[in-house]
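The following record pairs a protein chain with its ligand, magnesium ion.
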Amino acid sequence: MKLGELGEFGLISRIAANVSMGHGVITGIGDDAAVTAVTPGMQLLTSTDMLLEGVHFRRSWHAPYLLGRKSLAVNISDIAAMGGIPRWATLSLAIPKDCSLEYLDSFTKGFLSLAADHGVALIGGDTCRSNSGLIISVTIQGEQLPEMVVRRSGAQPGDEIWVTGTQGDAAFGLALLEGKIAPFRQGRGGETDDAERYLISRLLDPTPRIATGRALAESGLVTAMIDISDGLMADFEHIAELSGVGGTIQADTLPISPALQSASQHLSDFPYSLVLSGGEDYELAFTAPVDHRKKIIEITKKSGIDATPVGIVTSSPGVKAVRSDGSQIAPQAHGFTHFT
Ligand SMILES: [Mg+2]
């Protein structure tokens, strides 16, 4: 069947048929508005994100199933960054003419697979025709006890700066796809090796750190938190600004994946700029008093991902990155630049 024959309401019914009721859902897709019950004593967290074809993704790189997963993952990541429990999502799509029903089925399947992984219920949305590329808009709602919510504004001078997982993987994957970094084996048949495939998969199918964000929030040990969507430097600058502090990142302590180490071997210089300023890893950056170090290592490990202290919050403003010999890594245009 063609999308045109199915129509907007047909498409919505087709999506709704695959949706199961979730936690606190009283009325889901199909009425004028969804009705949900927030857990007594908790507060509602709401975040929204837009993904535009040609700006945030390319259909030629991104299989629809993974694009569906990613469009929810980047939203769930914002709930993780607040220490919240993700609950409900809405999905709105502006669909260009050349997007087939099979494409949308695959997209929806991916979206709902990630939703199921995290216990998120799809409770509504909208669809319309787009004249210029696929546009995806997702709103996510989560909840948490008021005293557990972690904001960007609580970092204190002397706190350590931490990151979860490894840094720079997605940015390296993007650089490979864009052709800004030549694949290692390009001269030997052009195939992409395992390390490069891994890095690209971190860009196309990121993992929101919900269990870790929640465990850290509920521990009461962290003072500020953010998810790294625009690059560590740019995102830590948001914490610094809202907390009225600065920070020094020790570039040599940044956790680098074996894949990134392997894939960057043939480069003349290690790509610090990607690791510090590349975006889309969707790891968490947070701050905590130094004496919580041991407990934080335990908590994050138990939640399924390691965390690494990578710097110190300073009372003087400004965020800088230094090498172990004390030299400063030249500040550049911090933050992820969209590729068109
Ligand atoms: Mg965010």
